[in-house]
Design goal:
The protein has about 70 residues and is of the alpha+beta class. About 65% of the residues lie in helices and about 10% in strands. The longest helix has 15 residues. The protein is globular.
C-alpha cells in the first residue's frame, strides 16, 4: 500500500468526485481510479461503491477513511 494511494482515496472522499480529486492531485481521472482500484485489491475489499457518476463509501471505506 502506497501513501500516495491513501492520499488519492482521501482526496476523492473529501472532494466528493473522482474528477475534482484528480484535478486537486494533478493527475488524470483514470489514473486516480486505477490507483484506488489497486489499493482496494491490496486491501482485499472494496472501499468505494461506484454507481455511474456517483459513489458512496462501503463500510470498509468508512473505517479506512479516518
Amino acid at each position: 500500500m502506497l501513501l500516495r494511494q491513501m492520499r488519492y482515496f482521501a482526496a476523492v472522499v473529501d472532494c466528493g468526485s473522482f474528477t475534482e480529486a484528480a484535478a486537486r492531485c494533478y493527475i488524470s481521472q483514470s489514473a486516480i481510479s486505477q490507483q484506488i482500484r489497486a489499493l482496494e485489491q491490496e486491501l482485499g475489499t472494496p472501499l468505494i461503491h461506484r454507481e455511474n457518476r456517483r459513489f458512496s463509501l462501503t463500510p470498509a471505506g468508512e473505517l479506512f477513511y479516518p
